[in-house]
Each structure stands twice: as structure tokens, then as C-alpha cells.
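It is worth pausing here to work through a concrete case rather than discussing structure prediction in the abstract. The textbook approach is simple: state the sequence, then state the predicted structure, then interpret. We follow exactly that order.
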Amino acid sequence: MRAKPTPNNQERRLSEEEFIVSKTDTSGKITYANRIFMEIAGYSERDLLGIQHNIIRHPDMPRAAFRLLWDTIKQKQEFFAFVKNLCKDGSYYWVFANITPDVDNSGNIAGYYSVRRQPPISAIRTIEPVYKEMCRIEQKAGSVKQGIAESTAYLLDLLQSKGTTYERFVLELYG
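Step two, the predicted structure:
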């Protein structure tokens, strides 16, 4: 088991021209990582291939966001999100992610692929306090399962109060 890096306050940013691309199997193990992914995250191809994609999960990301992701892509639907990722050296980077199921000729999910790009700073300023509150709710809960449920309920209530859906909210933030 690898030790998780200790987060620091150093931010890395993608340029507008850069795209991170990765593929995983159905369990989330990385089967492909492009050069830009390796460079920004600070991992070699050898470090990444066969490893769970959550190797780059930043502790500032609420677990409920990933539950929503998995629930969506397992239904063969694409998913959009703003995600804060953790680099090998403890720095971080934000992305606007599009995760899509890879379906084989029989209609079965064979894996997933994700394309990530630079997010607008205004979107991060909007989503960061939402994620912070979701993490606070999750940490306060009695169990992981309860925390995810309460954090999800908070997010859904917030979206309902804005008269929108998660997908619409995220896509509108992206602009």
C-alpha cells in the first residue's frame, strides 16, 4: 500500500490547450494515462498503470461527489464535474472532467475514459465552498455511509433551491 502524499498549498494549472486523458477498467484501475496527466500529477506511467484512479483523490473532495459519479457512469451515462486532484508531491490541480463509459459491442461497460481540461476560475470559486460544506458534513457524520447520504442530501437541496439539476449546474459553471 502506497502512502498518500500530504497535501500542501501549491497549485498547478493546466493551460487552455492541455487535456488530461485517462482510461480505466470497470473497477477504476488505470489502463491508460496521457503524457499531460503524468506530468501534472507527477507520476510515471509505471506508477499509474494498474493502480486505482483514486490515487489522485484530494481530501478536499467530498466522497458524495464520487458516489454521484459512479452512480451515473454505471448507468452508461456521461458525467461532468469539477474535481480537485492531488499530485504525487502534495500539490493540487483543478480540472473540469468529463467521464464516459466505454461500452463494448454487446452493450456492456468495458471501462471508462475521462478527458479533463482547465476549469474557469469563477467555477472553482463557486464549487469550492459547496465541496467544503459537503466535506464538513461527511466528517461530522457517524459513519462514511451516513456522511455520503447527508452530503448528497445537502447537494440535492442546494440544487433544488437553485431550480436546477447537477449536470445543468456544472455545465453552466463551465460556461
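Step three, interpretation. The longest strand covers residues 92-103. The helical segments are 35-41, 45-48, 63-73, 121-140, 144-161, 166-174.
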